[in-house]
Amino acid sequence: MHLKIHLYIIAFSLLTLTGAIHINAANEHGPIGDIYYPRGGFNGWSAETPFTQIKAGLYEVNLKMAPGYHELKIANKGWRNLWCVKAMDDKALDFGKKYPLIKGKHGSRLWVKQTSSIKMLIDFRQEEPVLLIEQSALLSRSDSNPHQGAEEQSRLNYKTYDEKNESVTFSVEKTNSKYRSYSQSTTQILRDPVPQFSKYSEKPGFPRLRSGSLSFDALFALAQEECRLNSVEEIKDGNYNEGKPLAHSVFETGEKWHYVWTRDLSYAADLGLCFTDPHRVVNSLIFKTGRLRPEVAHKTSLNLVENGLQIVQDTGTGGSWPISTDRVSWAFGATKVLAYIKGEKRQAFARHAYDSLKNTLVIDRKAAFDQEDGLYSGEQSFLDWREQSYSKWILDDLASLGSAKSLSTNACHYQALALAAKLANEFGDHSSHKQFAEWANELKLAINEKLWLEDAGLYSSITAGHHDSAALHKFDWLGQSLVIITGIAGPERAQKIMQNYPHGPLGAPVIFPQQPDVSVYHNRAIWPFVTTYGLKAAARSKCSDVADRAYETLIRGAALNLSNMENLEWLSAQPLLLDTANPKLIGPEINSKRQLWSVGGYIGMVMDTLFGLKVKDAGLKCEPFITSRLRRSYLKESNKISLLNVNLRGKKIDITIHLAEINNDQGYYPVVSTSLNHRKVNSGIITWDSLLENNTIEVTLGSLKRDSLKAKVLSGDPYSKDAAHLFAPRVPEVESMERINNKIRLKIGKQERGGLSYKVYVNGKVVDSTLQTRASDVNGTVISLANRQKGYLSVVAFDERKQVYSHHSKPISLSLAKTIYVDDARVTAKPGLKLSNGPTPYLSNWGKTDERLLIKDIHISESGKYSFQCLYRNLQHRINLGITNGVKKAMLLNSKGDVVCERIIQMPHTKKEASHKWHLSTPLITDLKAGKYKLVLEDYINMSYLDTNESYGSSGGIDGAVNCIDLRGYSISHIKN
pTM of the entire structure? Predict the structure, then answer.
């Protein structure tokens, strides 16, 4: 996870700044001794508009603010000095009230009920500084008619979830212009305090759509305009280069995100960006790779090429990689763009891509691959705001999150392996080609064996972590879609996914079921880029109903919001669901206009799916997927649609699709003929050498091919907090566990929701149902099972009628663990033990590249399976940010000195506010015979070792690589006979 998620976790917003207010001179900083900025989700936590001194010791800034519940902090550019409200009780701040300020980490919340102008003042004239926020006059909206003088107008009307109507009006200055200029206005209240209309124009060099529908043509032009706006020559982020711009010809992530993030870029490139600017895609992908820093490169023995060139995992959960391993999503963008470029540029990027992938895959195989189940560990791809899609207890046990397996992330690993195998073959690296191809095939088999849930007809999105590892009844639309489009899921399972993944009336949510007591962001949300992947999967599966719903979600969202937004609430499709009764559940918490992967998604919707333009190494194909519903709605005004000025590998192409007659039945129109420059194409693929400098492709569609497969559609009140058919049960809380004779008695805390059953898992397997009993009463639930188990126990709640399941409870050990502390005589260290002073001895800031720990004379009295875990804390950064996950190599040696097991273990960030607590790392788990062993702990790498983080402003950045933790000892558990 990266800075974005730091933004996500504590804020959301609807604010736009009025413009820069400049400090006139450095000596005007006065008592604050620095330049400070209001920072929060409303401005992407950026440092753009400073407080300015209006009197000695008095500073002000003016903001525009939209409705919502906004988190606010006052900080300098580097976050090294931070002010917040002194008495923060999580209540909204009142306008006109003075609040004492104190240096600290907590944010302050500001509740705004209507779009307003805000004046914020900080007063240092008293001994205790104070914050004052005043609400000024409401923002005036322009009454001008944006469509005045237009030659043609059209309107789209949409019914809302509460049976109201919203409309969008489009107009064009001159209909027959080669490059049209459009105006678009909406009646829907927008997320940000901006005018209710926008203007944009078609530009030379970009594709243009002519469909007979002014509205549809305009929305495609809007996506092209937003792609152009995201095409920048410099980027910046408050955590890099002291917030100063970096010169790079790349794609930025959105209106509120001025940096390049690996997964956002890669998915956006795969979906649509390659159609418009493949060379900028290449630049952006290269920017997201890095080499080992010179000061650590010579200290590693990883056997890597090109100085460790590899893909960057952005800042995030627990200190980044390998808690998160979806950096391999990069392969989706790289796979796509390689087909769009040619010659020396392609050869150079292919070499860079292969070296980057080869190193990444070798390291990930060692750090994240589980030989036992054949899957890669790591956080869900894109769903990287922990409590949005994981259990709340995971915040105190990020190691369990990191060791869990994710469907979407494993699909990304599959794509990376497939591309690496292809490139290895191109470069004549035949042994690597064979190895990567075998790994890809084995991973495909493992995903289908371990993650498919036959009772749900869907793939599980995630497993539980170590000591549990069961596939959970949790589902996500990106993961389901990726396994279809990569071919991991066969046709039969793809059809089941289309039938079984729940949709709302206005689109498919990114996760299901929803999380209770969690605000809207990934939870209870539609994300347009995920919808586009769902559309691609539906087209591949020939499921017109799911495709229709995706088309409508994407078109409606871009129309009503005047932009391709980051996300929308799933039952209302609102950019902000203002829940005044439950302010903490308001959302989406963050929402940016022209979000890069949403823009790429809309472009891909039109070019890749509707027109079916598939670009391959050998040439291109046109496989349009046009449904009867799309034909009779947005495409009803003409018998043909044209995509003009498509530029592929320097060839100009105009594509026209001749439509069949309108039909009211459900289905899609198959292709009956294709021609290039008026000559029929028989093979289906148009080779590159058959293209002229300027080309015309014509596709004719035949009669409707009917299909009856229907999406599963659920409805409900968007303001519902825990509707049984939409929300998962809350995670069971095991209040007590006791052994009575041959029974284990569990006391489960009372659930707020009735009608629930429970399942007990031991070591990831459901305990025989005959050993379970339930007795519900006002005090909770009691479960009894046979006391014959070793290992770890967890409980899941489920509603059998609604078929929704909770997350698993935190695993409880059924065995007594032994801990060897660092002050034990069996513990030695290189270059030496330097224990902290105090009642709890520990190794402080241990783990520099040359430091090594040895624990000898570990006595195993009984053969079986054992788990070894470090007892540690990692206070290098917040749990949702940073690049300093503690990543070490652990080796277990027998009495002869032979290595019997080797694992990469992780010690991710832990909460600073609970710095007195010690945590358990990811485990080394292995089968052992009775005897004596010794354990060795030595350095591996983390993301701070890459040169791309040399300008990072926090730990592991500008001051050098950091892979250190506080180490208390080592815990050993017997988990299975």
Answer: 0.92
